Amino acid sequence: MLRIAVQSKGRLYEDTMFLFSEIGIKLGSAKRTLLIPASNFPIEVLFLRDDDIPQSVADGIADVGIVGENEFVERAVEANIEKRLGFSKCRLSLAIPKEEEYTGLQWFEGKKIATSYSHILNTFFAQKGIHAHTHLITGSVEIAPSIGLSDAIFDIVSSGSTLVSNHLKEVEVIMKSEAVLIGTPGLSADKQIILDELMFRIDAVQTAEG
Ligand code: PRP
Ligand code: ZN
Ligand code: MG
């Protein structure tokens, strides 16, 4: 039995459930249960917060996981990307209040930026030689500038509507992201066989969709 960690709610949850249905994996509908075995395939699904998926795979609590690449890169844990999945696409961008005049990356010098992705942001600023303060918050990042908590934000952008409704404008795309299948290092041979079958089925639907 291969244990796969999946986000318990949100877009990635919906897209992952759709993938399972496309590749013919049926889950028992034990709602509100953390761990659900498939009825027709040797996997069990462990539902977690996306923040916790990279670490759970690195620790071997789950053998594999489906998570946003952004979340995986941010956690900087020991796990392998087994496969890029091509769904739940988004970008990680810097955004500033829309009335501000943007003068290039130098605009961020000495500024305070609210984000849930401080590792990715600090790495980027270090590479560019920009000195800015990152303020780590775990949610509602987009309201930080309007309440005086920060000058700018660094967050996930998908449709862009969250930025628009918070009077922000996207000024730099730092990273593109999509869902990835990650695996724990040193999977046993039995589990590797199941993972290979899983990836074979995913390849088949990806090829069909071209
Ligand atoms: C993300 C992000 C924004 C929103 C952007 O949150 O934090 O709130 O999506 O999407 P948009 O550009 O289509 O408006 P999400 O709801 O994915 O999850 P969260 O609970 O981690 O904020
Ligand atoms: Zn400071
Ligand atoms: Mg959000």
TrEMBL record:
In which pathway is this protein known to take part? Amino-acid biosynthesis; L-histidine biosynthesis; L-histidine from 5-phospho-alpha-D-ribose 1-diphosphate: step 1/9
Any one GO molecular-function label of the UniProt entry: magnesium ion binding
Q: Which domain of life is it from?
A: Bacteria
Principal EC category: transferase
Enzyme Commission numbers on file: 2.4.2.17
Cofactor(s) essential for the protein: Mg(2+)
Q: Which reaction does it catalyse?
A: 1-(5-phospho-beta-D-ribosyl)-ATP + diphosphate = 5-phospho-alpha-D-ribose 1-diphosphate + ATP
On whether Amino-acid biosynthesis is a keyword of this UniProt record, the answer is yes
Q: How is its activity regulated?
A: Feedback inhibited by histidine.
Q: Which residues form the ATP phosphoribosyltransferase catalytic domain?
A: 49-203
Localisation per UniProt entry? Cytoplasm
List, in alphabetical order, the GO biological process terms annotated in this UniProt record.
L-histidine biosynthetic process
Its keywords, alphabetically, are: Amino-acid biosynthesis, ATP-binding, Cytoplasm, Glycosyltransferase, Histidine biosynthesis, Magnesium, Metal-binding, Nucleotide-binding, Transferase
**Record's GO cellular component, any one?**
cytoplasm
Does the keyword Cytoplasm feature in the UniProt annotation?
Answer: yes
Q: What does this protein do?
A: Catalyzes the condensation of ATP and 5-phosphoribose 1-diphosphate to form N'-(5'-phosphoribosyl)-ATP (PR-ATP). Has a crucial role in the pathway because the rate of histidine biosynthesis seems to be controlled primarily by regulation of HisG enzymatic activity.
Q: Which family does it belong to?
A: Belongs to the ATP phosphoribosyltransferase family. Long subfamily.
Please state what the protein is called. Answer: ATP phosphoribosyltransferase
The protein's organism comes out as Microbacter margulisiae
* Source taxonomy: Bacteria, Pseudomonadati, Bacteroidota, Bacteroidia, Bacteroidales
Query: Which start and end residues of the full protein are shown?
Result: 1 to 210 of 283
